[in-house]
Specification:
The protein is built from 4 helices and no strands. It is mainly α. Bound molecules: fe (ii) ion (2 copies). One fe (ii) ion binds next to helix 3 and helix 4.
Length: 133
């Protein structure tokens, strides 16, 4: 079962960013299904690392755009990215140390962080980028 569903309301109207967001949610969903199906821990660890790596790539894409266009709110947005990556890194460590990843606990894959971040941080960035284009 999908735990997050893409909806057009999440579009920030910057094609590259929207495409990456859709892929990010797909990875979250795949990991969620794998946890539900009690996949082997090593397999889950690899998926979690994949999600973390893609998230890092995605954040770098946004950060390059912010720097290039001198986005006013970039420091706060960068900080939020660092915080989310730290959280994902902690999850990778926990799972590497034998924890089984779950979606509603301290070792939570945090199902809604992506959507909350998109709404609170990426949408205003999208508006800004569309305005200066
Ligand atoms: Fe962002
Ligand atoms: Fe984003």
């Amino acid at each position: 079962m999908s735990i997050v569903t893409w909806s057009d309301e999440y579009n920030v109207n910057v094609e590259k960013i929207d495409k990456q967001h859709r892929h990010l949610l797909q990875l979250v969903n795949e990991l969620h299904s794998a946890v539900e199906e009690r996949f082997d821990k090593e397999e889950l660890r690899k998926m979690l690392i994949g999600l973390t790596e893609f998230t890092r790539t995605h954040f770098a894409t946004e950060e390059q755009l912010m720097s290039k266009h001198d986005y006013p709110n970039q420091q706060a947005h960068f900080r939020e990215h660092r915080m989310l990556l730290r959280h994902l890194g902690d999850l990778v460590t926990a799972v590497s140390n034998g924890k089984y990843p779950t979606f509603y606990s301290d070792y939570d894959v945090s199902t809604d962080w992506a959507l909350v971040h998109i709404n609170e941080y990426d949408k205003p960035l999208g508006d800004f980028l569309n305005e200066i284009e």
